[in-house]
Design goal:
CATH topology: Rossmann fold
Helix content: 40-55%
Shape: globular
Number of strands: 10
Structural class: alpha/beta
Radius of gyration: 17 Å
Order of helices and strands: EHEHEHEEHEHEHEEHE
Largest sheet: 8 strands, mixed
Oligomer: single chain
CATH architecture: 3-Layer(aba) Sandwich
Length: 254
């Protein structure tokens, strides 16, 4: 029997965060029967996620790969390995990010560029490598974790990054939606923590909902504590129903 006949029918690639949202999204899709490939920057993160997923069901349908989203060669190698194992993914999730508090002038040019490289360029490069394969098949979903209901001066680099993600999603949708791809971002506007209104398992349901939409595709869902997930094309802070806050860590990178 040809090897490709043994490939899982549905698969998802999760790039980035191996803890909060990333882990919950991987777990949600795995529970739904998807083969899961997890790509993260450190072997410890990858091992932790893979171990948790394999403790569920179908451990043979989980693989972990180490790659830095700012290293194009290692990223492409990981994405190609995932494709070889599970086929062209049905779903691509980009959840890598650098989260830090800073204001204009706080970061050097190199620091600002390295932050943008993870928050925006990594997403663009990842999507650019996978989207054409999905387009040739005629279907696929690309979901990028976003945030920031409005830009904030004390979250300077993050504001630039998250608004860059919004623009990236619109451009990807313009390019690939006519070829059958659904591209969207989930804008998470508060601190993610289990047991709160921003429980990562609850947020993961929004990713699944976006993938399962059959028509009237949304390009952005703003996740707020007062109203939960809300579909908006161009949300404002007034419409979102909350002010956004993020973990006050100097450099939280997946």
């Amino acid at each position: 029997m040809p090897a490709f006949l043994n490939l899982p029918i549905r698969s998802v690639v999760v790039v980035g965060d191996g803890h909060g949202i990333g882990l919950s999204v991987a777990r949600r899709f795995h529970k739904e029967g998807y083969a899961v490939a997890v790509i993260a920057r450190t072997s410890g993160t990858v091992t932790g996620v893979v171990t948790k997923l394999k403790a569920m069901t179908r451990p043979e349908n989980v693989i972990g790969l180490v790659a830095d989203v700012t290293d194009e060669q290692s990223l492409f190698e990981a994405l190609d390995t995932a494709k070889l194992a599970n086929g062209v993914p049905d779903v691509l999730i980009y959840d890598a990010g650098v989260i830090r508090t800073d204001r204009v002038g706080d970061l050097s040019a190199d620091e600002l560029l390295s932050t943008y490289a993870v928050n925006v360029v990594g997403a663009a490069v990842t999507a650019g490598h996978v989207a054409p394969l999905m387009a040739r098949r005629g279907r696929g979903t690309i979901l990028i974790t976003g945030g920031m209901a409005e830009p904030k001066a004390d979250w300077f680099s993050l504001s630039l990054g998250k608004y860059g993600v919004r623009t990236l999603v619109e451009l990807l949708a313009e390019e690939f939606e006519p070829q059958g791809l659904h591209v969207a971002t989930v804008a998470v506007t508060e601190v993610v923590a289990p047991g709160t209104s921003f429980d990562p398992d609850t947020i993961a349901e929004t990713y699944m909902m976006l993938h399962q939409q059959e028509k009237d595709w949304k390009h952005e869902v703003v996740f707020t504590p007062k109203i939960g997930p809300r579909n908006k094309a161009h949300p404002t802070s007034a419409e979102s129903g909350c002010r956004q806050t993020f973990p006050s860590t100097p450099d939280a990178r997946s």
